[in-house]
Design brief:
Blueprint (H helix, E strand, L loop, with lengths): L3 E4 L3 H14 L2 E6 L7 H5 L2 E4 L12 H11 L3 E3 L9 H9 L3 E2 L4 H8 L1 H10 L18 E5 L9 E3 L5 H16 L4 E5 L5 E9 L5 E13 L2 E7 L2 H5 L3 H15 L4 E9 L5 E7 L6 H8 L3 H9 L14 E8 L1 E2 L5 E2 L2 E2 L2 E3 L5 E2 L7 E6 L6 E2 L6 E9 L2 H13 L2 E3 L5 H8 L2 H4 L7 H5 L1 H4 L6 H22 L18 E7 L2 E10 L2 E4 L5 E6 L3 E6 L2 E10 L2 E5 L5 E5 L14 E3 L4 E6 L6 E2 L4 E7 L2 E6 L4 E5 L7 E2 L4 E6 L1 H4 L1
Parallel strand pairs: 1-2, 1-4, 2-3, 4-5, 19-20
Antiparallel strand pairs: 6-7, 6-8, 9-10, 9-12, 10-11, 11-14, 12-13, 14-22, 15-16, 17-21, 18-23, 20-22, 24-25, 24-31, 25-26, 27-28, 28-29, 29-30, 30-31, 32-39, 33-35, 33-38, 34-37, 35-36, 37-39
């Protein structure tokens, strides 16, 4: 019997496993890097052990430190979560050798599925349809997909459309794979431009029972990483006989390797319902909550039960209703999905009925690794939370989830929230027309546009200015009760300037006996204002704006849409100015490679260097034809956001 469980992971998945462990009366042990010392998962555990360092290689990818932590804390079992060492056979073997219970499949099963190259050969022998690897690519094989053999989550994956790019993409994929999984092995396979990513949740015990619990569709992806997941799959629902064939293939895959515990068999399918084996993930999946919501199962509880040797029932439970999960990332989709970092000042999703669990025929579940005040760093994946809705039908589920996201308050870092809402409300999504080319087909630029339009942003800027005036008066030590901007003789309006997603907003206004007079806001009447809430009547409709200001950043939430603003400094510091042509670090990170030297001539789009942050490599390209005038960084340098990485001087600037 398991009495104390160490989770060899962090963030959201650690909290998820802890939730079930607490329900079962099992003591919990957390591990944490220095960067995670104040994380929610550390506070929630019964005991916590520090892993010195911050990078994954120093901490969560160190089997010796993790096993020592389990033994020191008195744990008798280890749950690996997902990512990091969750599919590392040597780690599983070391856990067992230390006399601990491994909450996962047999070591041999991990080894056989751990290599995506070998696993395909094995699946083909078991009668599961597969895609073939490309050993010596030619033009006829294009496009190609470079994939990491040891991991997933989109890391170590590159699409190659020209043979001339293959060597460079192989190098980049190997570097990412080594950083994320500790194994640089990659392989090449045909890349299907469009398709459906369908996966089957399996659960097996050591007594020979194998469940195919249900399927999920995870076709809407960015950088080959899932963004929206749902159960059941719209494609499977409308394709006669496909579910039976999928379940049969998944059971064959699990049976072929003597599988035990929770696992996922992933397939790529076409519109006709033909499917091909991609890989088997020998762990719990990020998207497991949607299966739990439609089946009523606790997959973590089943993992623990199977690890203790208990048998499964003869047949799995049936499914009912529909569930959709979205991954809320700290990233900017409009800027090539650029990860964001910083302090999450406020985080609230309204209407949440459950955390890390699900019950009933409908609800809203939040599985989060962060909370208000959390710091989003650069060492790990930028996922903040998973928000999951479930209801009797798909349309009701999408409506509930999009509404909750639109009303959420996420202050401090830019996220993909607006994109998620637009996807969930898109006619093609609601019609079940989802595949891996969804963003390309419907336009990432359009889908990533802010929910708030320019008029809403302007109104929000007005509300921010009025709230700022009230905050100033509340903090005033002299004449605090005098209205902001009050004059015996009015000479000019109050002026405040903000920048937002749609541009710059100069707010010019006066508040006198006759009420609010604001340039460009005809028909807008001030109802009330405090430092936190401003009520305006707009064309006869009363609107409430909730304003949160931290330093020069302002967030305004209303039913019209969330708005993020930056107050423009009236007297900027000249020391903050940078030279023309400067390329600034978009995020904190590490310079991993430099492709040019100072004095080199470069062309627009030519790669200058690569920056690693949040387990991904980000290429910094020349913005125009010119000469590298300055290159103040080199490989291995740690850089903060805003640091000058290079200066490219064009011919016009140099003359």
């Amino acid at each position: 019997m398991i009495t104390s469980l160490l989770v060899a992971n962090r963030g959201e998945i650690a909290r998820r496993v802890f939730r079930t462990a607490r329900d079962l009366g099992i003591a919990t042990v957390a591990v944490h890097s220095d960067a995670d010392a104040d994380s929610p998962h550390v506070r929630e555990a019964d005991a916590a052990v520090r892993l010195p360092g911050s990078s994954p290689a120093e901490t969560y990818l160190r089997p010796d430190l993790l096993i020592r932590a389990a033994l020191d804390a008195g744990a008798d079992a280890v749950h690996p979560g997902y990512g990091f060492l969750s599919e590392n056979a040597e780690f599983a073997r070391a856990v067992l050798a230390a006399g601990l219970t491994w909450v996962g499949p047999p070591v041999e099963a991990i080894e056989r599925m751990g290599s995506k190259i070998e696993s395909k050969l094995l699946m083909a022998e078991a009668g599961v349809p597969t895609l073939t690897d490309v050993a010596e690519p030619t033009e006829a094989d294009l496009p190609l997909l470079v994939k990491a053999s040891a991991g997933g989550g989109g890391r170590g994956m590159r699409v190659v459309r020209r043979l001339a790019d293959l060597d460079g993409e192989l190098a980049a994929a190997r570097s990412e794979a080594a950083s994320a999984f500790g194994d640089p092995t990659v392989f090449v396979e045909p890349y299907l431009e469009t398709g459906h990513h369908i996966e089957v949740q399996v659960m097996a015990d050591r007594h020979g029972t194998v469940w195919a619990v249900g399927e999920r569709e995870c076709s809407i992806q960015r950088r080959h990483q899932k963004v929206v997941e749902e159960a059941p799959s719209p494609l499977v629902e409308r394709t006669p006989g496909m579910r039976d064939r999928l379940f049969d293939a998944a059971r064959k895959a699990a049976g072929a390797i003597g599988y035990e515990g929770a696992g996922t068999v992933e397939f790529l399918a076409d519109d006709a319902g033909r499917f091909y084996f991609l890989e088997m993930n020998t762990r719990l999946q990020v998207e497991h909550p949607v299966t739990e919501c439609v089946t009523g199962l606790d997959l973590v509880a089943l993992q623990l039960s199977v690890a203790e040797g208990a048998p499964l029932a003869a047949d799995p439970p049936g499914s009912a209703g529909h569930a959709i999960e979205v991954r809320l990332y700290a990233e900017d989709p409009a800027l090539d999905w650029r990860p964001q970092s910083g302090t999450l000042h406020h985080f609230d999703v309204p209407g949440v009925t459950a955390h890390f669990t699900a019950a009933g025929e409908r609800g809203l579940r939040l599985d989060s690794g962060v909370e208000s005040g959390s710091v989003v760093g650069v060492h790990y994946d930028p996922m903040l939370a998973k928000v999951i809705a479930w209801a009797p039908d798909r349309t009701a589920t999408a409506r509930a989830l999009s509404g909750a996201l639109a009303k959420s308050r996420v202050h401090g870092v830019h996220t993909n929230r607006d994109l998620l809402v637009r996807v969930l409300r898109h006619p093609a999504f609601l019609a079940g027309e989802t595949d891996t080319a969804f963003f390309d087909r419907h336009g990432l630029g359009t889908l990533s546009e802010p929910l708030a339009d320019k008029d809403t942003e302007a109104l929000s800027a007005l509300a921010a200015a009025l709230a700022d005036a009230e905050a100033n008066r509340a903090a005033a030590r002299v004449l605090g009760r005098v209205p902001g901007g009050w004059r015996n003789v009015v000479s000019q309006p109050q002026v405040k300037v903000y920048t937002g997603a749609t541009g710059e907003h100069e707010v010019r206004y006066r508040v006198g006996r006759a009420g609010l007079a604001a340039d460009g806001f005809t028909g807008v009447r001030l109802v009330s204002a405090t430092a936190r809430v401003v009520e305006l009547e707009v064309a006869g409709v009363r609107r409430r704006f909730e304003v949160t200001a931290v330093g020069g950043s302002v967030w305004v939430d209303s039913a019209l849409g969330p708005v993020a603003l930056t107050a423009v400094d009236r007297f900027p510091d000249p020391a903050d100015q940078v030279a023309a042509g400067s390329l600034l670090a978009p995020m904190p990170g590490t310079v991993v490679r430099v492709a040019v030297s100072a004095g080199d001539s470069v062309t627009a789009g030519q790669p200058l260097l690569w920056l690693e942050a949040m387990k991904m490599e980000h290429r910094i390209d020349a913005p125009a034809d010119g000469v590298v005038a300055e290159l103040p960084v080199s490989a291995g340098d740690q850089v903060d956001v805003g640091r000058v990485l290079a200066v490219v001087r064009t011919a016009e600037e140099g003359s």
